[in-house]
Design brief:
It contains 40 helices and 38 strands. The relative contact order is 0.10. Helix content is 42%, strand content 16%. It is of the alpha+beta class and 1240 residues long. The protein is elongated.
Length: 1240
């Protein structure tokens, strides 16, 4: 009998026979059942328990529980650890159960979807999980594709079908798939489909979404299969009534499931620090226990052994009355047992409630992010969403932001803005003298009253271009004819309105521009294109489409009209310039000048050209083209050679300029994040010049920066460029070292009371780095990584252009590891998923490219500008609150636990507890938990408005000064000192104490009650001192916890419960010694803290404290005033000469499909993949520096004397930055407000 199954061999090739389940079953292919859940009813408890005890903390407390069960070593009841441990495990288990139940429901929803399956000659409705490899299934419009299928036939002409792939690649555009003509003849004839007996051989299951290789053998003929004939699971069938497909991959073998991957478990910097601290505390715990063990052994040997009559040893101890042995053996045995007893007693230094509290705080702060209306985007009904609850405080420590460009910084919406035709630039509004004027809301748009196809949302402001069209200028007409004819756009009429579906927003914008100027693309057939020019239809014969690809960076069409053959071409400027006729040299020079002007405005450009073709040349070339297109070997290379031959000696017609609009608020958000000290890297697939121009537009780059461009083709060139640039930066910094040094003394900016160098290891404001993808390939080599990191970290802004998704992840990982810095990646498309998962925190934007980035992210927002509030407000608050919580928590638990240590010297090191066992259990759960939880969930040092207005407040998180090893030692030391005072003042007060009725107060229970009560009052008052933000709720939490403790302890120690501490509370609380001890102890503990803080706030105020003062004075002096954020202007001057090249930001088009005669329904495929081009290499951009910010203002001395007196500062506050623009509609006179200005 076989007790186990042999491991399935690795699949190299898949062999399938249609409708032959017996043959297919021998290969044990996966069925279509999907299981993403982790547990079943039987495995939940053991598996979840095993996972939870893999956490060191849970395992540690389990070991403590086991020790407490042993009566010989435990002085605390076992339930004092069992109850909180069970609570923690239970909460975690419930959370895991809820998550897994949701996964089960989602799995059931997917697995039980219905699909029509061909079985025994009939179509039967079957659930998805019963579909197997080799089945033929039928799908209908708007249905999800059940498995990875080979398309057999469809309802559309020529067996085309249209699918939406948003779940796979994040792209929302429709894509076209086409069946093999031989299988297309099957149609929906069930009898023919039932007899379909093809054999399929194809690649093994893999995660490559864009490639499929296989062959089909049918009727002794072999047919090639590629990705264009495959429908992948997760796609949605659109605009297709029905289609049939053969299942190739099912279930876990589908490309969707192969790409799902495992989400990387992310932990915060504070979590990692906590692990180190807890290890240190555990070592300290062992040392204390070892000390107690040695002390116990000495005490038992010298003292305890002489009093065994009164304190008899246990019967199992050598030397006791029941067991033979000497004193040394007995003392050694007892001391060893005491070691484990003290481990149990001292474990409250790190109680299990710490982990519960941290999770509750994080959950609360996540809700605050979700509920923030200021991050709600009404247009898409999209609020901010914290998709994880474990990373909130990490948002307050971000040092590097890695962002995509298209769709993240920009809207991915293209508009036709300018053009150049026949040596004239159009698009600017000019006055009567020809000087350009600014375009405002009052500027009149060009009207198209005679064009019934004009679009209402089309905006163009230069009337001269329309006049040129109406005047029938030949080159202007040729320009728009190229735009109307040279493309792969699909027209559609919906509700009587002509609509275009383009592969990219760029191409759609160009065809739309031609339409509005009267050159309307109306329809196409496989061999013709119909356009309408000023109401007159013209039909062009479409002879050939020379389609776009990543290498060509251009596309062309060959058309015939009235016997005249023309090649119309559009593409990147450098590609077109290389193929121009020599007659165009003058025109090229003029257009180059215009391209530079367009680039200064951050526009994307391309050039248009044409060429007349002789009929006899066309026949010869067409024969070569046919031979290349039918070649079975190196077809693409042969076609490229043929295309290159005809695309020569072109005549330059003009150029276009398209604007990729920035999202609202992007420049302001980037400027503010940069002022906060965060370094921003742009990682984009777009071309170099376009990326640079967007960098200027969004204020990532400014004109005072010196830009270094790394664009070497070889490893040696890249190495030399980076080395030279790094040397130039070092030389420059040495020259300006005395100017750039930031002095942090004598009234300078401080954090947490200590002078801190804010610009330590941060770049100066003078340098930016731009590096190309091909150069980045060499820079990311192991021997060049260090140079790249040093160069990048020496610059204020970095742009990596033309990078692949893998390179994005590699750059993030490099900085993450080499700098040991907290990183954040933000993007909106499927190509951003890799860097989103790699960074410490991933933020997804729900944009034009689907939800793939959002699904992989930790936080989701609708607009890039909300990142500013997410970090500067919620991130800073979360970090600020968590740091306060941890400092206070360790303080109060050291103060609580170490009282046992001091008591050990008075109880013979016997592991006797000072407190009531119930007090030990309830201290962190009921008596001191609510105030610190309220503080950690809702405390604010400054409100959200000032958090954004003064981004330097973010600096403590960058410096990791809120909570670190030094701060922990300080808190632990304060706790140790507190425990000394808490124990010894009551000890000496109660040592010979007598109650007013003559009873003794010096017993163990009275001392324990007095110390415990003083501890609760002192630590709650200490928490009150840490609160920066007070409401009635905070008062209830603080005073309510103290009152609750006294009420509970009196009730519990009453006679009705018959507890061993019966009457102790009444006896202690009714004595004068206790109240005097309480007052004296709290005064000694809190007064130094108050004095210390008062001194530093008055003499050495931090930036936070100065802004808190400003906040209070502002609210008291001008509550009715309207305050607005005003940032320093970083508008750039048009001093650059780089030009931006439009490089066809889309994939290979529909050229082959259109000319094949198959696409009669005129559908659309659009892709967001950007394929920019390289332009003139530039090694460095030198810009004149901006003038100094002398317009930063200070308040009138007379009106601000009270503020200066309060802060102890006679000058302006450093670290506070604002704009001063009297023309601003919300400008406020500086003499009317308390203003703090920052040295720049």
């Amino acid at each position: 009998m076989q007790f186990w199954k042999s491991e399935k061999p690795v699949e190299i090739e898949r062999d399938i026979k249609s409708s032959d389940p017996e043959y297919n079953a021998q290969f044990e292919y996966a069925n279509n059942y999907i299981c993403t859940s982790k547990y079943t009813v039987l495995t939940f408890l053991p598996k979840n328990g095993f996972e939870q005890f893999q956490r060191i903390a849970n395992f540690y407390f389990l070991c403590l529980l086991i020790l407490q069960v042993i009566p010989q070593i435990s002085s605390l009841p076992w339930y004092t650890t069992l109850l909180p441990l069970a609570f923690v495990l239970g909460i975690s288990a419930i959370k895991d159960l809820v998550d897994d139940v949701q996964r089960h429901r989602n799995d059931a929803l997917v697995n039980n979807r219905q699909s029509w399956v061909l079985r025994d000659g009939k179509l039967v409705e079957e659930r998805w999980h019963k579909v197997v490899v080799g089945d033929i299934i039928k799908m209908e419009n708007n249905q999800f594709v059940a498995a990875d299928l080979m398309l057999l036939s469809t309802s559309e002409p020529h067996s085309l079908c249209y699918i939406e792939t948003a779940e796979l690649d994040g792209e929302t555009n429709l894509k076209v798939r086409q069946a093999i003509p031989e299988t297309a003849e099957l149609g929906d004839d069930i009898s023919q489909l039932s007899r379909f007996d093809a054999a399929i051989k194809c690649e093994a299951p893999n995660n490559n979404l864009s490639k499929f290789e296989g062959t089909m053998t049918w009727h002794n003929q072999k047919y090639s299969l590629d990705n264009e004939k495959i429908l992948l699971r997760g796609c949605i069938l659109r605009n297709t009534q029905w289609c049939y497909g053969l299942v190739i991959f099912a279930g876990k073998d589908t490309k969707l499931m192969m790409n799902s991957g495992k989400t990387v478990f992310k932990r915060t910097h504070i979590d990692r620090l906590m692990n180190l601290i807890i290890i240190g505390i555990f070592i300290l715990l062992l040392l204390m226990c070892l000390t107690m063990t040695i002390s116990c052994g000495i005490w038992e040997t010298l003292v305890g052994s002489k009093y065994t009559v009164y304190l008899p040893w246990e019967s199992f101890v050598p030397g006791s009355a029941d067991k033979a042995g000497n004193v040394e053996e007995g003392a050694t045995t007892i001391s060893l047992l005491v070691f484990f007893s003290y481990i149990i007693i001292f474990n409250t230094v790190v109680p299990i409630s710490l982990y519960v509290s941290v999770e509750m705080i994080r959950l609360a702060n996540s809700f605050l992010i979700n509920w923030d209306n200021k991050m709600y985007y009404e247009k898409t009904n999209m609020p901010a969403k914290a998709r994880t609850t474990t990373l909130n405080e990490e948002l307050g420590q971000i040092e590097y932001i890695f962002t995509d460009k298209t769709g993240t910084l920009t809207q991915n919406i293209m508009t036709f803005n300018k053009c150049s035709i026949n040596g004239k630039a159009y698009g600017d509004v000019v006055d009567e003298y020809g000087n350009p004027m600014d375009i405002t809301e009052a500027t009149a748009k060009v009207e198209f009253p005679d064009n019934p196809y004009a679009e209402e949302n089309f905006e163009f402001f230069d009337q001269r271009l329309l006049d040129a069209v109406q005047n029938n200028e030949p080159l202007v007409h040729d320009f728009f004819k190229i735009l109307a004819l040279c493309h792969t756009v699909m027209p559609e009429v919906k509700d009587g309105v002509l609509e275009y579906q383009a592969q990219s927003p760029d191409e759609g914008a160009l065809v739309s521009a031609a339409r509005n100027f009267g050159f309307v693309f109306k329809s196409r057939t496989p061999t013709t294109i119909t356009i309408e020019i000023n109401g007159k239809e013209e039909v062009y014969d479409l002879l050939c489409i020379l389609d776009f690809n990543n290498v060509r960076k251009r596309m062309s069409v060959v058309v015939r009209k009235n016997g005249k053959l023309q090649l119309l071409c559009k593409g990147a400027d450098n590609v077109i310039f290389e193929r121009l006729d020599k007659k165009c040299d003058d025109a090229k020079e003029i257009i180059t000048h215009h391209l530079n002007e367009f680039a200064n405005d951050g526009l994307r450009t391309l050039c248009l050209a044409s060429k007349d073709i002789p009929e006899d040349y066309w026949k010869t070339w067409n024969a070569k083209h046919h031979e290349a297109s039918t070649s079975m070997e190196n077809r693409d290379d042969k076609l490229s050679e043929v295309y290159e031959e005809i695309e020569q000696d072109l005549m330059l017609i003009g150029s276009t300029a398209i604007e990729d609009k920035l999202q609202d608020g992007v420049p302001e958000a980037i400027a503010n994040l940069a002022r906060a000290g965060i370094k921003i890297w742009v990682l984009t697939g777009d071309k170099q010049e376009t990326a640079i121009n967007i960098g200027y537009s969004c204020r990532l780059l400014t004109d005072e920066m010196e830009i270094f461009i790394v664009d070497g083709e070889t490893e040696q060139e890249v190495k030399k460029q980076m080395t030279d640039f790094l040397k130039a930066i070092k030389d420059h910094k040495e020259e300006r070292n005395h100017e750039e040094t930031v002095h942090m003394q004598n009234g300078g900016v401080t954090f947490n009371g200590s002078a801190t160098e804010l610009n330590m290891e941060t770049p100066g404001p003078d340098f930016a780095l731009v590096i190309n993808g091909h150069s980045l390939y060499h820079a990311l080599r192991e021997d060049q990584e260090a140079t790249l990191v040093e160069l990048g970290c020496s610059c204020k802004a970095i742009i990596c252009c033309r990078v692949t998704p893998l390179q994005k992840a590699m750059v993030v990982d490099l900085i993450k590891k080499s700098q040991n810095s907290i990183t954040l990646s933000i993007g909106d498309g499927a190509n951003d998923v890799s860097m989103i998962k790699t960074a410490h925190i991933g933020v997804g934007i729900s944009g034009q490219e689907g939800m793939q980035a959002v699904l992989a992210s930790d936080y989701a927002i609708a607009q890039f500008r909300y990142l500013e509030r997410l970090l500067l407000v919620h991130g800073r608050w979360s970090y600020f609150r968590m740091c306060k919580f941890l400092k206070y928590f360790f303080y109060k638990n050291f103060a609580f636990t170490l009282c046992h240590l001091w008591f050990a010297f008075f109880c013979g090191f016997s592991a006797q507890t000072l407190y009531d066992p119930y007090f030990v259990s309830f201290y962190n759960v009921f008596y001191t938990s609510i105030p610190i939880l309220i503080l950690a969930c809702f405390d604010q040092d400054v409100d959200d408005y000032y958090s954004v207005r003064y981004p330097k407040l973010y600096t403590p998180g960058l410096l990791d000064s809120g909570f670190n090893k030094k701060v922990f030692v300080f808190s632990a030391t304060e706790g140790i000192i507190t425990s000394l005072i808490l124990f010894f003042i009551p000890y000496f007060a109660f040592q010979n104490g007598v109650h007013y009725d003559g009873t003794d107060l010096s017993d163990h229970q009275s001392l324990g009650c007095a110390v415990a009560s003083t501890l609760v009052v002192a630590v709650n008052l200490r928490c009150a001192l840490d609160m920066s933000y007070w409401t009635a709720f905070h008062h209830v939490a603080i005073w309510g916890s103290i009152i609750y403790y006294f009420c509970f302890i009196v009730a519990m120690y009453a006679s009705s419960f018959n507890y061993t501490y019966e009457g102790v509370a009444y006896q202690v609380f009714s004595s004068a010694q206790f109240w005097f001890t309480l007052l004296l102890t709290c005064t000694i503990l809190l007064l130094p803290i108050i004095a210390y803080r008062f001194y530093y706030i008055d003499v050495h105020p931090t930036l936070t404290e100065r802004i808190r003062l400003k906040q209070r004075l502002t609210k008291s002096k001008s509550r009715s005033k309207d305050f607005h954020i005003r940032r320093a202007s970083t508008l750039r001057r048009s001093t650059r000469s780089l030009r931006s090249g439009y490089a066809f930001a889309h994939q290979e088009g529909f050229g082959e499909l259109i000319t094949s005669g198959l696409n009669m329904r005129q559908r659309v495929e659009k892709s967001e993949q950007k394929n920019p081009v390289e332009l003139t290499k530039v090694s460095k951009i030198d810009s004149a520096p901006l003038p100094s910010y002398n317009d930063l203002y200070v308040e009138n001395n007379n009106s601000n004397s009270a503020s200066n007196a309060a802060t102890g500062d006679s000058g302006p506050t450093e670290g506070v930055e604002e704009n001063h623009n009297p023309s601003h509609p919300h400008y406020h006179d500086p003499d009317r407000h308390v203003v703090f200005c920052e040295k720049l």
